[in-house]
Amino acid sequence: MRDFDNSRLNRSIALHDGNSRQQLVLRDILFIQADHIYVRIYLADGQRVLHRKSLRELQRFLPAPFFLQIHRSHIVNLTWIGEWDSQEIELAGHRLSISRARKKEVQKELSTFFSRPQR
Q1: CATH node for 7-115
Q2: Quick one: residue 92, left, alpha or beta (phi over 0 = left, psi -120 to 50 = alpha)?
């Protein structure tokens, strides 16, 4: 993980499913994958959290510029990206495809994000 000193990543989001509630620190999220009417949230410690919410609904709680949708089914935390090319992103051992429709936007956002000074 790249070292970004930003309080927005230290915040957490609360996930409510029926009677259960779970807090997730934004910094710990690697990526989020759409899975029909659920999302699967991949965490840095290896956990996977299944939550009944759409990717679009969850995206409202994720601070820009740290989270970026690279495919209709994936949102990634840019601070965890190890490397990328025009077709894939690698983060913490996971390789995710960049959609053709989002390729230009994703490349632009990645270049902008990684060209700014790290704090």
Answers
A1: 2.40.50.1020
A2: left
